[in-house]
Structure formats: structure tokens, C-alpha cells
Amino acid sequence: MGLKKIFAGAVLGLGLLGGVAVAQDYPTQPINFVVPFNAGGGTDVTARIVAEEMAKILGQPVLVENRPGAQGIPGTRYGADAKPDGHTILFVLQATMALNPSLYQATNYDPLKDFAPVSQISESPYVIVVHPSLGVKDLQGLIALAKEKPGQVNYASGAAASHLASLLFQKAVGVEMNHIPYSGSGQALTDLLSGRVGVMLSSPVSVLPHIQAGALIPIGITSTERSPSLPDVPTVAESGYSGFKVSGWYGISAPAGTPDAIVEKLNAAVVQAIGTETVRDGLIKAGVEPKSSSPDEFSKLIATEYEQWTVLIEEAGIKPE
User: Among 82, 94, 244, 282, which is disulfide-ready with 88 (CB 3.0 to 4.6 Å)?
Assistant: First the structure.
């Protein structure tokens, strides 16, 4: 073996040993967990449930920092720009990673290049809810009404993800409803609860209290399996539309350049946290389904979703704002 190869091998070995040593020492200080949305919302609630358990596993506080505004773009950019040493991690989701680049010209990050995916932490199907005044009690009833009155049944959306999921649903079941857009899910929910609009595809976390109070009727779940938080509500696939699935998801990423050994240690902590009964019960109660993954699996999910939603947005003729 030549001297150059021996030297290169020695350097590589020292680099690997250095990475292992860094991971063994990590974390050496509190971990900043950036959530690019307001405190109290579904993203924040989910992040805090996972962060509390991760702190116990890693032996350092995991401190949630809310950086809301502009569809999560500034907060996500802030997370991407953080020092890649594992002491800043970022809450990522379908909207910020797969939708924003095609919907908002202000998006100033690349979801495929600027981050080191750590793990998915949840999957959240949409629940199709209707106001009682619509006179619909199941999915078949909504489809029949929408076919009887094409373009006249109003549905609300407070976010791009909800609107796009609604378009996929209408395409799958062969109906056309009238879109009423809102600037936020809170406003959309207010008008849904008042009966001004009749239908909404929503994350369960936002509507569970109103379902439990009888103010809204759940008629379908958009995952392939029933939701643990709404076990009596059939899936769209069960209702005769085999293969239909659309779900939101939450996850954790680190800035690009974070050492692989640290990403793996973070991943192990996330997987262990989500495996605990406390975290699983907390996430289900919050309306999301616990789901962890390897860094590679999460990276592939982000890439697949980015491509899928980019194509749908183009097909729908939606222009970046």
C-alpha cells in the first residue's frame, strides 16, 4: 500500500474517531428547539410534548423557541442558518418543507439542501367535518349533496395544506365544492362553527374539542387507517374510495452540515421519546398519530412530498404569492 493511501486512511480514521467523540460528548449545553409558529398551536403543543421527553433522554434541557410569522418562513430560515452542532434543531412540517417553496415567493430556503433530517415525529390525517345545519351525517351524504348542488356546497380552508387536501378529496370522489379561503385556520373554524360554511378538512387537533361538544360532525378520515383519536370515524378509503390517502406530518431537522453522529444521536432520542407511553398518549390526545423514522426515511419523505405537492400546485394553476 502506498504512503498516500496509508496517510489518507489514517486521516479518515481520525475523522471518524473525532465524530464519535463529538457525539459521545454531545449535548454539552441546552438544545434550542425552534418552532416557526405561535405558542399554543398544534405545532407548539406537539413540539413541547416531544421536547420534554428528549430532555430526559439527552440529559440537557430542550427549550422550545417560537419564531412565528409569514407562513413559518422566517423561523425555518433561522433554523437553517443556525450553527450545525446539534444545539439548535428545527420543527419542520409538510407546509414548510413541501408547500411553501411553490406557494410563496418569499421562501428563502431549499428544503432538500439546507437541512439534515432527523426524524418524523407524527402523522396527522385530515378529518372531514361538517356543520349540523348542512344536514349531512356521513361521507356518502356529503358526496350526494355536492353532486346534487355542484359548486354550491361551501368548504373552508385556513391554510394552503387544507385547501390542497380538499382539492385531492374532491378529485377522488368526483365532486366540485365552492372554496371559501381564510387567512388562518382560526377564522375558518369560527365561520364553520357558526354555519356560514358547511365543510372543512382540518387537522384533528383543531376540531376535536368541537366534535366532542357536538358542534361539528366528523364524517371521514383521510388516512388509510382509522385515527386513534377518532376510532369510530371511517376512512375515505373505507367509504368506497380505495387507496385514497392524504396526511400532514411533523418532524425534526437540524441545519445542513450537522455531523452524522450527532444526527444519529438525536434520532435515537426522538425514537426513544416517541416510544414512551407518555409521549404517545400525549400526541394522540393532541390529535396527531405518533410516528418516528430513520434520518434516511425522513429525508425520502420530504423529497417525495415536495415533488408531489409541487406537481399538484402547478396542475391546480396556483401561482406563488
Answer: 82
